[in-house]
Write a structure and sequence with these properties.
Number of domains: 2
CATH architecture of the largest domain: 3-Layer(aba) Sandwich
Number of helices: 9
Radius of gyration: 19 Å
Structural class: alpha/beta
Mean pLDDT: 96
CATH superfamily of the largest domain: Type I PLP-dependent aspartate aminotransferase-like (Major domain)
Oligomer: single chain
Strand content: 15-25%
């Protein structure tokens, strides 16, 4: 059994299914019972950063049960309000019980290049490497070289991108006040829909697209996700339509 966040990234259940495993929703470490636990902070879709002590609790749980922890750190650099990126692997014992996955798509604007990497427990990394070798054979060399340049070169563009998303976050949260809008990181805002409104109605009646919360898990029902990865003009138009719908 693989324990997944709920709400969580919609591709996680697909990975569990492809592995022929069972999945269950993670609730707490007292009742958690599985071979592995997926974590994702900052979170897609809830835009929450990791709560204090959660990574430490995850390591202790894994040590106690023999389970593994996989942390999706795709949005790690995109944190707001003076926060610093928090890596699971920075916690004592994490490298022995789990791995952390990082994508070049978010921090460096390389979506579509399909480049990322994994660090941590040597056995898990070796298994991933073997799977990748049979499925993909390798990554196009120029893409790898570009990734090296991005990681080792000036990081000004990362901060510029992060600051842009924070500015847009401020604008969206202000417009969505009264709807429990939240965003501590990523390029999303998570908010509660009015009881009589659905994502489908927003699209069909108000011509604004948001991601319905139930698409990320049952606990996401009644919520929706707004993307900040659009131009300022598109964001303003979308927020105006949301305001009119409310």
């Amino acid at each position: 059994t693989i324990l997944l966040p709920d709400p969580g990234y919609a591709d996680y259940p697909s990975a569990v299914a492809l592995a022929g495993a069972r999945r269950a929703s993670f609730t707490d470490f007292e009742t958690a019972d599985g071979a592995a636990l997926y974590l994702n902070y900052p979170s897609n879709p809830t835009a929450a950063c990791v709560p204090a002590g959660l990574f430490e609790d995850a390591v202790r749980w894994a040590e106690r049960t023999g389970a593994s922890v996989l942390h999706d750190f795709a949005y790690g650099d995109l944190v707001f309000d003076g926060r610093r990126p928090q890596s699971f692997l920075a916690v004592d014992g994490a490298r022995e019980v789990g791995v952390e996955l990082f994508s070049m798509s978010k921090s460096y604007g390389m979506a579509g290049w399909r480049l990322g990497f994994v660090l941590g427990n040597a056995e898990i990394v070796a298994r991933i490497e073997e799977l990748q070798d049979h499925v993909f054979a390798g990554i196009f060399r120029p893409v790898q070289e570009a990734g090296i340049v991005a990681l080792t070169g000036p990081q000004d563009s990362v901060e510029e991108r992060r600051a842009t998303y924070e500015r847009r976050r401020d604008r969206a949260v202000d417009e969505l006040r009264g709807h429990e809008a939240q965003s501590e990181g990523t390029f999303f805002v998570w908010f509660r829909l009015p009881e009589d409104l659905t994502a489908e109605r927003l699209l069909s009646e108000h011509r604004v697209a948001v991601a319905p919360g139930e698409g990320f898990g049952e606990r996401g029902r009644g919520w929706a996700r707004v993307s900040l990865a659009v131009t300022d003009e598109v964001l303003e138009a979308g927020l105006a339509r949301l305001r009119a719908a409310f």
